[in-house]
Amino acid sequence: MTTTPEHDEKFAKMTFSSVYPHYVRKVESKGRTKQELHQVIKWLTGFDDKKIQELIDEKANFETFFKSAKLNPNAHLITGVICGYRIEEIQTPLTKQARYLDKLVDELAKGRKMEKILRQP
């Protein structure tokens, strides 16, 4: 399934600060912690806690968020379906990156082991 230009534009304009509370609520409702969420975000983007908070405070959109990220070289190992889209088939880099983050948060909430989430051998 390919994404539409409208779908891709929606991701570019969506702010990280509008989605972040949902990520926190999702993982905490399943017994995981905000610290674990930050560990996942750090693994994917290279951001530390201070940078994550800056991006939230700035109301950075996902385009800005991922432009300032140093994507983990193993991010391409994130595969599967999220929100009806097979990640490895998404053509638009920004949409793929946003779905990487969604997939990692989903795996965290589902109780997957951190080593598996962070694609460690």
Automatic annotation (TrEMBL):
Pfam families per record: DUF2200
Alphabetized InterPro entries for the sequence: SP1917_dom_sf, UCP033199
Name by which UniProt lists this protein: DUF2200 family protein
Organism: Limnovirga soli
Lineage, opening ranks: Bacteria, Pseudomonadati, Bacteroidota, Chitinophagia, Chitinophagales
